Amino acid sequence: MRALVVEDDRRIAADLTRALESAGFRVEHVEDGEAAWFRGGTESYDLIVLDLGLPRLDGLSVLKRWRAEGCDSPVLILTARGAWTERVEGIDAGADDYLPKPFRMEELIARARALVRRSGGRATSVQQVGALSVDLNRMSVSLAGVPLAVTPLEYRLLSYLTLHRDRTVPPSELLEHLYGDDDARDANALEAVIARLRRKIGPGLIHTRRGFGYDLGAPG
Question: What pTM did the predictor assign?
Answer without folding.
Answer: 0.83
